[in-house]
Every structure is written in structure tokens, then in C-alpha cells.
């Protein structure tokens, strides 16, 4: 079972309950029965995310007084309509609009807090905020009941991952959002102030219900905060994690737990550095600080495991993520500093003028540090009123370009060329086995040329020659130039490896294909280069799509003709 269709179902409030029951195979009704059986008698209940109100109404019918908070206005309207259908004046359920980050549940008011199939729609730091607000709203000894989708353990995990992969593909086609199984949630409750008292599961642990008791002294005024455990940044394991990020082509969002980490032994007067929760970024930042023995707090916002530059440009490193990190982690309680030092490259996502000013939720001002983490120790030591130019400009050096070229090569292999190449080679081997070898040889030669072309584009042209096209910011123009250079480079390499070379075979049936690979790869490389802006790319993309499709069709047609006429 997977609840990734919940987003789609939420668009149809009137039929949500029936659709969700069908999707879960009836497990959702079992969850409702479980919640009803674990509620203290005659409770005052706060439910977060009631959807169409089915469980809230059932709880009220059992004699509980229910306040249900829903952020979806259409779903809220449906819940109120469902309540009004019930002809029972004793049913006490109040449906209200609200969302978790702005919700004020009151202090020590409720006997129970309930949430089913909602937490998987929240980000990890939002889940921590939910737990803290539930703790604040509960009376001492009160009950928290949650149910949601978890990743099952053991052999069932592989099947679960496969199902979710298929659902994600389907949801992309439907242009709908997905939910996320609770990966780190089990670590949060104890740190925040809850004790697990009951648990049940269905579908081999893919769906769990958990009951917690609020643990606190009567005079305790606030919930605790969760802090992720220290994470290795040196040694073989850290190196392997870093290489995994590079060799995955950044297709995988390699996330670490968002939250507060420490460099050295920071104290109340130590600086607070903000960065992404991308594993490679964490390793690089902490290593650069450790080399100079810098004591600092490192606040990793939830960028979904994406690096700072890409996350800021894609809406995953902005005001929302910064505010939720400050609220969820309690960073203000462990430091006297009033300044958060942001990465320079997060400026594309953070809108500093729109951040709250001098509020309890955000008692900080912000300042942009250097572009590269290697300059952080000097920046923290000198506190310059004005940063030197080399700390402000992201210079795309040869080393950076080669690393980016490697990452882009693995991205292209995984997402674009890998599977088609494999299928083409299987077809060639079948031809070799059951028919003539002429076509099979030509097909295999074409695949070899394709990968040679990719290697030349990524490591030579984008890695080494890229500064030569700095005369323009337009990536379509860069692509036309580097596409032409690619077909020349591939032709020269093929000529050098001929047993009896004559003239360089610059014009072949596959020439257009090599040009297209250079053109497409250059445009795709734009996100790595920091040589453009999202607005410029958006302006070019419509024309790029037309040219890209035209060049691709032409290259495929000519390559097939070359194979048939060989």
C-alpha cells in the first residue's frame, strides 16, 4: 500500500473517504477504530488534518468534545457539511481553518491530540513543530495518537520501495504531489517529551498507529527539542558518501537529517552558520571549519537533500525553510548571537527583507557569508564590513568544472542515455545471434560513439573548454558552439584510432547526433555552471525545446539512414 495518491484524492473532498478506503484496502477504517479505542473517556480532543471529518465526527459521537484543524478550505467545507448531516445535537465537533506552522493550540488544554495520515505530508522539521505544539496543547499525562505511512523493515522494504517508485512515476504524469513515509519521525517524540505507550501496524509495517503519553513535570513550561546525532565528516565512510553524491549525478536527493550540528565545541557565543541538508555540502562545510578548529553551530535547513545553489533556485532553500528550521530546532535558545550567516549562493531563494523582524519566532538578522565554505574560517575571524570580491563571486574554476562535468556525465548516463543504450545493445546482440552481423556491428559502433561523445562533451568541452564560450550568457548560443566543437572532436578521435588514417571523417551519418549531444548537454549543464540565472534560462527554454527536438529528430533519422546504407 502507498498513500501517494492522497494529494489527488484531496482534490475531490466529496469522494475522498471512499477513495482513500479503496486505496488503503480498508486499513484507514481500522486506524479509525484503533484511535477510538485508545482515547481517554470523555476527552477534549484536538485533531490536526481531519480531511472530510469522518474520524472527528465518530469521536464526537462517542462523547468527546472535538476541535479539528484543517488547512484545505474545500476539505473544511466538506467536513462541516458532513457534520451538519448528522442529526444529533449532542455531537460536539468544531471544524476550524489553520496550518501547523501558525497554529496556536493553547497551553495544557486538551486530553488528547490526534493526527492520521497527515504527518507524511509534512517536512521533517514541520513534524517536529507539530510534536512541540501537540505537547504544548496537551495536559500533563495527555495522549497523542498518530497513524501514518512508514517504511517497513526487513524483506518487505524492497517491495515497498518498488511500489513507491511506480507510484511516483504515475503521480508525475498526473502532475500531483506525493507523500513521504516517516523516515526519521520515530526519533523525535522522546526528545520532545513523549513516551510511547502503544503501537499497532498493518501491511507489514507500512502503516503504523502509535500512542504517546505526554511526559512532563507540572511546572515544565516548554517541550524539548530534537537534535540529530553527530555525523561523520572524515574517514572512508564520509568519503564514500561524498563520492556517492558526485557519482549519482545529483539525481538522488542525498539528505541528512535537518537540524543543528556542531563544528568543534561551540557555546552560546559561537556563530551560527546556515546551510543545506545535502550530505556533500555538510561534509564539505564541516571539514573546512574543522581544518581551522572553528567552533560554530551549523544549522542545516530542510533543502530536501539538494545543494544550496540548486535548492535556492528551485524553491527549496528560502524563507519558509529558514523559518521552520529556527522554530523547530530552538537555535535561539542555545546561542546569544542575533545573526545567522547564510551561504552567499542562497541569495536566490532567501528574501531577507520579507523575513520577520525582532519576533520571538525569528529573533535574528541575516548576513551572507562567502561563496565557498573554504573561506568561512577567514570570514569568521575577520568579520569584514565589506567582503572581498573573491568571497562574493562564484568563480567556476577548472576543478569545479571537472567535478561538475563528472556529475553531469553520471546524470546523463542515469537519466537519459543509460537505459536506451542498454536496450539498443540487447537488440544488436539479438541481431548478431539470429541474423546478419552487419547491422549489429553498426548498432554497437553507434552506441560506442554515443558514449565517446558524452565523455568528450562533459570532460573536455564542458570541463576544460567551457570558458571559451563566456563571450555570451545565452546557453543556446553556447550549445550551438560546443555542439559544433563536439562533432569535430569526436571525428578527430575516431580518425586517430583508424588503422590506416586518411582524412578526418568529420562528416558522417552520426555527425548530427554528436552535434545534438553537445547542444543538449550544454543547456542541461546550465544549472551546474552558475553562469546564468533562472529567469534567463526560463526565457531561453521555449526556443531551446524547439531546437532540441528538431536536432534530435534529424540526428536519429540520419543515424538510421547511415545504418541502413552501410
Describe the structure in your own words:
Helix 6 links the parallel strand 4 and strand 5. Helix 16 runs parallel beside helix 18, helix 17 crosses helix 18 and helix 18 runs antiparallel to helix 20. Helix content is about 50%, strand content about 15%. It has a 7-stranded mixed beta sheet with strand order 3-2-1-4-5-7-6. Strands 8-10-9-11-12 form a 5-stranded mixed beta sheet, with helices on both faces. It folds into 3 domains: about 210 residues, Vaccinia Virus protein VP39 (Rossmann fold, 3-Layer(aba) Sandwich), CATH 3.40.50; about 160 residues, Rossmann fold (3-Layer(aba) Sandwich), CATH 3.40.50; about 170 residues, no CATH class. By secondary structure, it is an alpha/beta fold.
Task: Summarize the topology.
Elements: H1 6-9, H2 16-24, H3 27-38, E1 44-48, H4 54-61, E2 65-70, H5 73-85, E3 93-97, E4 110-116, H6 124-137, E5 138-149, H7 156-173, H8 188-192, E6 194-202, E7 207-214, H9 235-247, E8 259-263, E9 272-276, H10 279-291, E10 296-301, H11 308-313, H12 319-329, E11 339-342, E12 365-368, H13 376-382, H14 389-392, H15 398-434, H16 437-465, H17 475-496, H18 511-524, H19 526-529, H20 534-565
Parallel strand pairs: 1-2, 1-4, 2-3, 4-5, 9-10, 9-11, 11-12
Antiparallel strand pairs: 5-7, 6-7, 8-10
Amino acid at each position: 500500500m502507498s498513500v501517494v495518491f492522497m494529494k489527488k484524492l484531496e482534490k475531490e473532498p466529496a469522494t475522498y473517504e471512499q477513495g482513500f478506503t479503496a486505496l488503503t484496502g480498508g486499513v484507514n477504517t481500522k486506524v479509525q477504530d484503533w484511535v477510538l479505542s485508545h482515547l481517554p473517556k470523555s476527552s477534549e480532543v484536538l485533531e490536526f488534518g481531519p480531511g472530510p471529518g469522518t474520524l472527528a465526527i465518530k469521536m464526537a459521537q462517542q462523547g468527546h468534545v472535538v476541535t479539528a484543524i484543517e488547512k484545505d478550505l474545500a476539505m473544511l467545507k466538506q467536513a462541516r457539511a458532513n457534520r451538519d448531516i448528522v442529526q444529533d445535537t449532542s455531537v460536539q465537533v468544531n471544524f476550524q481553518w489553520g496550518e501547523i506552522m501558525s497554529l496556536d493550540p493553547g497551553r495544557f488544554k486538551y486530553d488528547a491530540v490526534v493526527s492520521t495520515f497527515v504527518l507524511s505530508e509534512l517536512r521533517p522539521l514541520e513534524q517536529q513543530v507539530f510534536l512541540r505544539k501537540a505537547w504544548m496543547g496537551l495536559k500533563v499525562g495527555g495522549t497523542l495518537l498518530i497513524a501514518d505511512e512508514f517504511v517497513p523493515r526487513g524483506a518487505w522494504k524492497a517491495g515497498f520501495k518498488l511500489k513507491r517508485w511506480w507510484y511516483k512515476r504515475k503521480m508525475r504524469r498526473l502532475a500531483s504531489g506525493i507523500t513521504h513515509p516517516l523516515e526519521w519521525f520515530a526519533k523525535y517524540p522522546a526528545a520532545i517529551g513523549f513516551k510511547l505507550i502503544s503501537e499497532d501496524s498493518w501491511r507489514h509495517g507500512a502503516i503504523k498507529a502509535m500512542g504517546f503519553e505526554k511526559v512532563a513535570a507540572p511546572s515544565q513550561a516548554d517541550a524539548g527539542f530534537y537534535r540529530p546525532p553527530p555525523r561523520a565528516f572524515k574517514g572512508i565512510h564520509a568519503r564514500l558518501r561524498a563520492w556517492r553524491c558526485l557519482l549519482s549525478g545529483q539525481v538522488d536527493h542525498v539528505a541528512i537529517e535537518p537540524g543543528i550540528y556542531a563544528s568543534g565545541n561551540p557555546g552560546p557565543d559561537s556563530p551560527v552558520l546556515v546551510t543545506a541538508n545535502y550530505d556533500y555540502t555538510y561534509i564539505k562545510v564541516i571539514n573546512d571549519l574543522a581544518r581551522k578548529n572553528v567552533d560554530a553551530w551549523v544549522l542545516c535547513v530542510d533543502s530536501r537533500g539538494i545543494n544550496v545553489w540548486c535548492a535556492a533556485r528551485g524553491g527549496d532553500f528560502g524563507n519558509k525553510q529558514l523559518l521552520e528550521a529556527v522554530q523547530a530546532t530552538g537555535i535561539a535558545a542555545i546561542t546569544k548571537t542575533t545573526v545567522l550567516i547564510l551561504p552567499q549562493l542562497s541569495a536566490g531563494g532567501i528574501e531577507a527583507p520579507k523575513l520577520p523582524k525582532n519576533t520571538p519566532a525569528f529573533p535574528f538578522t541575516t548576513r551572507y557569508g562567502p561563496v565557498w565554505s573554504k573561506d568561512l574560517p577567514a570570514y569568521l575571524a575577520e568579520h569584514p564590513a565589506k567582503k572581498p570580491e573573491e568571497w562574493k563571486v562564484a568563480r567556476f574554476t577548472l576543478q569545479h568544472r571537472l567535478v561538475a562535468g563528472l556529475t553531469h556525465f553520471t546524470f546523463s548516463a542515469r537519466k537519459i542515455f543509460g537505459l536506451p543504450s542498454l536496450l539498443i545493445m540487447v537488440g544488436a546482440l539479438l541481431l548478431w545471434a539470429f541474423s546478419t552481423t552487419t547491422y549489429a556491428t553498426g548498432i554497437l559502433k553507434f552506441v560506442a560513439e554515443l558514449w565517446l561523445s558524452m565523455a568528450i562533451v562533459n570532460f573536455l568541452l564542458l570541463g576544460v573548454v567551457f570558458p571559451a564560450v563566456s563571450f555570451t550568457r545565452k546557453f543556446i548560443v553556447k550549445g550551438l558552439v560546443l555542439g559544433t566543437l563536439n562533432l569535430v572532436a569526436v571525428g578527430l578521435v575516431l580518425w586517430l584510432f583508424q588503422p590506416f588514417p586518411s582524412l578526418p571523417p568529420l562528416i558522417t551519418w552520426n555527425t548530427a547526433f554528436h552535434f545534438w549531444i553537445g547542444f543538449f548537454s550544454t543547456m542541461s549543464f546550465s544549472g551546474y555552471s552558475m553562469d546564468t540565472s533562472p529567469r534567463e534560462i526560463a526565457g531561453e527554454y521555449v526556443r531551446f525545446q524547439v531546437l532540441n527536438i528538431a536536432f534530435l529528430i534529424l540526428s536519429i533519422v540520419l543515424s538510421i539512414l547511415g545504418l541502413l546504407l552501410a
